[in-house]
Amino acid sequence: MTRRWSIARQLFALQVLVVTLLVAACTTGAVLLARRDARDAAIGEVTAVAETIAQSPAVIDALGAADPSVLLQPYAESTRRATHTDFIVVMAPDRTRYTHPTPQLIGRPFAGSVGGALAGGVVVEQYRGSLGDSWRAVVPVRNAAGTIIGLVAVGITTAAINRDLLAQVPTVAAGTLAALLLAAAGSALLSRRLRRQTHGLGPAEMTRMYEYYDAVLHAVREGLVVAGRDGRIELINDEARRLLGVPADGPAGPPAEVADLIAERRPMVDEPILAGDRILVASRREARFEGRALGTVLTLRDHTELRQLTGELDSVRGLTEALRAQAHEAANRLHTVLTLVELGQPEEAVRLGTEELALAQQLTDQVVGAVREPALAALLLGKSAQAGERGVELSVDPSSCLDGAPLPSRDLLTVTGNLVDNALEAVSGVAGPRRVRVLIRQGPAEVLVRVSDTGPGLTPQQAAAAFRRGWSTKPGAGRGVGLSLVRQVAERYGGSYGIDPAPGGGAVLTVRLPVPS
């Protein structure tokens, strides 16, 4: 199958054709102008020569002689040769020639118009006479009294004019050829540059490629953001707009977190970021072609649901492990109670069993009594079981009070769960005591969530960066998301968040969420 011409080749052929036509038109115009100028110059020359001869005293005197031809013929021929004209005819008012380049025509009538000259004017015309087609001027000759005593006709044949014009052809041809060569060289350079930029593709191929690429970019279920070398967004597909909350008909302005990722120069693979209510996994690579940097390609995948499911799975796994540990501990205590009964000490067995039940019921009553939001109460009980498994004492502040659900349960669970998880992580590396205290209190206009721990605490610099995406005191990928989610919820409600040092060591994390009216 014969490959169609590329855009560069088509443009080169078109430019050569246009330039050739343009140069041809210009050359034709130049030739026509030169021909007109040569004609005008010839007319001016013959008119000037004719007027000069008509005013010559020798001519005036000769016209009064018995045989004017004897005196005028030598004079006319010498003047003709000196002025490079083709004929000079001096004649009587009745057209009888006294001079002519062809002596045989002397005495015969002049062929041409003389009416205007006889009236005292100048006749300029193109006429085919005895010497062929020529441009001629006829002027009157006057004596001292002003009477017209004769006429002078001077002419140059069109063949002579054309010969002078043809003498200029080599110069015009050289200029035309030079113009064509320069234009062809410029077109070739432009075509070469265009061929590099289009990679030798033809219009149909480029159209088909654009259609395919556009269809693929908008159909793929992965967010794609392409930025130029200056950081400006060049392309953002439909999925990326959906994930980043960018309107379809608005400017492609990504959130600040994504803009920061684009501005960074390091490669990035599957790093979690926050964008609105979503947790995205981002990968960043620099786009290069033939060693030349073109910009940045950022791919985004939605991991919000996966993170939620993972969090729920972790909670269930933690609860399962806690229940397994409690079941193991309960089995030990049950064996102890049974052994006490078998040893004949039923009072001691009843006392031990009652204390265990009272301790478990006390925590449940404390949580359920303070927090009447079922999902949040279940979360605190589950976190308490996880804390017990880790050897951490988790308690609910007696002043806690949350009546119902002043805010959506999802947001309360996000804030409380992530603050408690962060506190449990903080105290996991200390020797002891390892305590976490939770305060949830509903006010007239806001909900206060405060979690304190006895961990190592944070420096002022660490406290300032703790709620930033990706920041964590512990190494490893995928960290630094929990407190970022807390910050996001607080900012969405127009609330506040912060970290303060605890009086006895550790940290106090406080979040205030305004209750919508």
UniProtKB/TrEMBL annotation:
Catalytic activity: ATP + protein L-histidine = ADP + protein N-phospho-L-histidine
Membrane topology annotation: Multi-pass membrane protein
Enzyme Commission number(s) from the entry: 2.7.13.3
Every Histidine kinase domain range: 304-517
Entry's Gene Ontology molecular function annotations: ATP binding; protein histidine kinase activity
InterPro entries to which the protein is assigned, alphabetical: HATPase_C_sf, HATPase_dom, His_kinase_dom, PAS, PAS-like_dom_sf, sCache_3, Sensor-like_sf, Sig_transdc_His_kin-like_C
Keywords: ATP-binding, Cell membrane, Kinase, Membrane, Nucleotide-binding, Phosphoprotein, Transferase, Transmembrane, Transmembrane helix, Two-component regulatory system
Record's subcellular location: Cell membrane
Xref: Pfam families: HATPase_c, sCache_3_2
Record flagged with keyword ATP-binding: yes
GO CC terms of this entry: plasma membrane
PANTHER family with a match to the protein in the record: SENSOR HISTIDINE KINASE TRCS, SENSOR HISTIDINE KINASE YKOH
Record flagged with keyword Cell inner membrane: no
Name under which the protein is recorded: histidine kinase
One BP annotation, GO: phosphorelay signal transduction system
Group of enzyme by EC: transferase
